[in-house]
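Archive entry: two folds, one per protein. Generate the first.
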Amino acid sequence: MIASAPDAPTDQIREIPFVDENVELVRRYAEALVSAASGENRAEEALGELEAITTEVLGQHPAFRQVLASAQVPVAEKDRILQQVFGDKVESVVLRFLRVLNRRGRLDLVPALARECRQIWDRRHKRVVVKVRTAVALDAAQEEALRQRMAAMTGATPILQITTDPGLIGGLIVQVGDQVCDASVRNRLEQVRQRLIEGKTHEIQSRRDQFSHPA
């Protein structure tokens, strides 16, 4: 772990101008952190720590999150808290990043920034997150087969995020970005049900037409 350097914020972060649109702001801050951490060869570590701060600190300690987000707490006091809590526990680039966010009044963006940083890093390394829901846990061979199939389909290295959902009855649901492939038994049964309904509706309509237009 690199020793902290609280008085030396990275140029990439310091020079970001204000913009009104949060989506654009998050993207630019995230790109700055990824570039700064990459320049120190600590990107994987920095991104992991930012994600841990989001889930393990802000997510599990809402009171602490409220303090950091509060406009009633002076910037200098928040800066002291950040150094005390994270000073010797995170990469120096992460601490500098948090302190810059504090000076800009943007600590509330940390969760969004953690997600955006990961997406940027994955795109740069041709990695894609594949979310998988299965009725039962996959064994090693099944998981590897799925990984290879998704690699062939996406042309990227798949990062599998697998969860089990007994409610699926059987099969699995795969999501890549906004695209979803539902191969669950429940989905197949629903498709069969819909076809039966459509067939019955067509049959009823045909009989109505026969009565409406007798030979």
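Generate the second and append.
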Amino acid sequence: MLIKIPRGWEIPEREATPESTYLNRRQLLAGLGLAGIGGQMIARAASLKQNNEFQVGDRPVTEEWAATGYNNFYEFDPENKERVKDLVGKFVTSPWTVKVSGLVNKPQTFDLDKLIGSLPIEERIYRFRCVEAWAMSVPWIGFPMSALINMVEPKPEAKFVKFWSVVRPDQMPGVKGGFGGYKFPYYEGLRMDEAMNPLAFFATGLYGKPIPKQNGAPIRAVLPWKYGYKGAKSIERIEFVAKEPPTFWNDLNSREYGFYSNVNPNKPHPRWSQATEKVLPRMSRQPTLMYNGYEKWVAGLYNGKEY
């Protein structure tokens, strides 16, 4: 069964962008000479390296129209995933800065455009698994989380990293009205060894282009072994701290959403099973893999009791 797409936007499967097309499109866009964050991404796209080290299984890349049209982003719409893309037009993502503070030797505020230009940008195709039991496979563009962390030189007492998403009520209609008791800005956290794991990634692009607003523009965290909500979107602040920081969903309901939130088919959500997942766009069922298939890269970080 296909996910429901609003009339006027839905395209037939035969017209969905194939992987070969979006890869070739990078060469075309590279010659356009666009400026800003998007320009940094596009200008470097022609020589973009695809990192195949973390490939898992044979799941095909999710069609672009599906991955960019079915999004959890409560700041825009806390109920309807298919409406988010239609509500992001007023959201301003350039220029953009990311402030890094806390227990580091070199606290600083990064201009994102300059940061992208100074780091090795690569493409990684990662499985993505939502806690709501739907899944996809996404070609993210960005850089390892460790690259930014090394630039600010964390102090030995820095044991955790905390992320804040931006909140702009005039640009984000979902933050108004206090729906569901949500208190923005969104905030998330990781243990330092998780943030330094080779899988941990900051995404600034998607499908060979700058990341769309509905997917977390202009920069978001991607942690493929964890449920999707662990990856903070539209990040504007990062802080290094000594103690485990509070996180958005854990504060709202600690019984349902733990700090770690690793993908685990053997631990059901209190309201549904996690043993299988629905793969976009057809929502076909298949077994959920431990750590979303990334067990060999991350299992050593855990004792099996985290949630």
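Annotation attached to the second fold: The domain at 13-301 is CATH 3.90.420.10 (Sulfite Oxidase; Chain A, domain 2). Residues 216 and 233 are 4 Å apart (CA to CA).
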